UniProtKB/TrEMBL annotation, chains A, B:
GO terms for molecular function: oxidoreductase activity; zinc ion binding. Gene3D superfamilies: Medium-chain alcohol dehydrogenases, catalytic domain, NAD(P)-binding Rossmann-like Domain. Signal peptide: none annotated. Its cofactor is Zn(2+). This is FAD-binding protein. It comes from Streptomyces radicis. The lineage of its organism: Bacteria, Bacillati, Actinomycetota, Actinomycetes, Kitasatosporales. Belongs to the zinc-containing alcohol dehydrogenase family. Residues 25-123 form the Alcohol dehydrogenase-like N-terminal domain.
């Protein structure tokens, strides 16, 4: 089969790879329906994280079950399945506590920009749809496997409640999905920090009520202006930089909540500042598996369409262009079709 | 009147001071029933925080109303009242959101180791008991004004629930009150990190089920041993040092909660470590006013006796010895009687 391999920063190739095989009886092999490029894939692409030896890329997927290991009974060949970027057995204590992305047997997916994918912990990880959904729904179901699940987690961790005021920091695919999540959870006001006109448009389509273009202290001041001077009930931090985290913490009202879902790079939180703010802080890799049944339902019923974050669709063999377009901000997120 | 004044590190004097007067129509003057020395008073006493010009000390109090300003109708002269170390109008948006210790008109008390005290925001801050409680209850009601309220907040912020496992980091008066709070909130297991035998005894009397004497990585390993290898549901950080915070964060299970109530000194939380732990973190000055009616009831009904943390009682004029005994760890907490 063929799939994306990173050889060095900015050097993504569509290489011939060995076909994946069942390694453990808990594995499944799926044929990729659609996959995509994640904002976090740009960290190694840009050389911010070391790339090391050439290795496959990609952790988002939906597909058709090809083969299952002897212990996998939850899905069967031919079914259309949605999974998570973090696999989980869905039975361990951390899974039972609601944190499958901290499963004791967790494996992070990393070979999904390819024609076929081996899914460890398939029994706990994969959720099959009743029927094969129409192709027009595949992008939204793909989004559920990561960015939509992560946006939902941001809203969950930030305790977005009916009627509350939410601020979304970051207008990437996760931030935009966080807007959907805040809207679905009933937020009365959704303020998005964004400077990019096409993303602002999509944010408004997803339910944003206000756009703030200022950043840093000015951005925080603007949020305070919009929230009776005290800040927002919930802030959804969807970037992962020190600046974004500072902005998020200072945009929350006393006793408000910040959910942070961008992998932090160079972030340290000052204990005394957090203390006097009374703000609650929770983040981490999204427990997507917990949300899958609900989010799949919302997509299939047409309530949400997170697939709209894909503003570029390419054949899988043009994966290199898919990265470049995102790197140059020509695309929010690139869909790849095998 | 007379009261405690800090002149320099380790120089506490019982000086003659001006009698407090009503300054604002929202003030009340109370005659102190009992007051005490707080662990946080030791920061300036030890010179860790600058002392500056000589100034009065103390922020914990119960007493009898002497006089009220024109806008104070909630309490009247002669009543026995309990307050909070942070005053609040109990009407502003932060108060309504449950964070009176972040009241827009908050004033931190700082003159309470004295015979009379001026209470700003008296209308929102003071809660009167129906009758004058017996003197044997005064120490526990005094504890409610700070350490018991703060212990309760630690358990609240750490989401202690019926049946959950709680770890208390710190065996000072707040840590011991946090044990009471965890017990009252139904924790199934309460593990206290303590090396001091008399404090361990009191912790057990308050409901601790396990004592861990190890610290740092060894302490964390011991907590994991006691919690199926994953850590505790809730960790109550009642110290405020970098070591205590690290220990707290690492003692919580994935997706668990840390409530931190010791004023942080030199604490910075690593964003990436917090991220991958999935741990929720919330702290701050305790919203004591929110808890006052409930905690006063628990004391008056005999359910809790947080006054047991006072293991030294002195006449107010011996306040200097009260500080010294706590500094030398001869006392957990010193009660002062005018």
């Amino acid at each position: 089969m063929r799939g994306a391999v990173i050889h060095a920063p900015r050097d993504i190739r569509f290489d011939t790879l060995e076909d994946p095989k069942i390694v453990h009886p808990t594995d499944a092999i799926i044929r990729t329906a659609v996959t995509c490029v994640c904002g976090s894939d740009l960290w190694p692409y840009r050389g911010v994280e070391p790339t090391g030896e050439p290795h496959p890329m990609g952790h988002e997927y939906v597909g058709f079950v090809e083969e299952v290991g002897g212990e996998v009974t939850a899905v069967r060949p031919g079914q259309f399945v949605v999974g998570s970027f973090a696999t989980s057995d869905n039975t361990c204590v951390n899974c039972r506590n609601g944190f499958p992305s901290n499963c004791l047997h967790r494996a992070f997916m990393s070979t999904c920009q390819a024609e076929y994918i081996r899914i460890p912990n398939a029994q706990g990880t994969l959720v099959a749809t009743d029927d094969v959904p129409g192709e027009e729904l595949w992008p939204s179901l793909l989004a559920v496997s990561d960015v939509m699940g992560t946006g939902w987690w941001a809203a969950d961790a930030a305790e977005v409640r009916p009627g509350s005021t939410a601020v979304v920091v970051g207008d990437g695919a996760v931030g935009l999905c966080a807007v959907i999540a805040a809207k679905e959870r009933g937020a009365g006001r959704i303020i998005v920090m964004s400077r990019h006109e096409p993303r602002q448009r999509l944010a408004r389509a997803f339910g944003a009520t206000d756009i703030v273009t200022e950043r840093g202290d000015e951005g925080v001041a603007r949020i305070k202006d919009l929230t009776d001077g005290i800040g927002a009930d919930s802030v959804l931090e969807c970037v992962g930089t020190a600046q974004a985290m500072r902005q998020a913490l200072r945009s929350a009202r006393p006793g408000g909540d910040v959910g942070f879902v961008g992998v932090p790079h160079g972030v340290a939180v000052d204990g005394q500042e957090l203390f006097f703010s009374h703000v609650g802080l929770r983040g981490g890799p999204a427990p997507v598996r917990r949300y899958l049944p609900d989010l799949i339902d919302r997509v299939l019923s047409g309530r949400i369409a997170p697939g709209r974050v894909f503003d570029l669709a390419l054949p899988l063999d043009q994966v290199a262009e898919g990265y470049l377009a995102m790197d140059e901000r020509r695309a929010i997120k690139t869909l790849l079709r095998p």
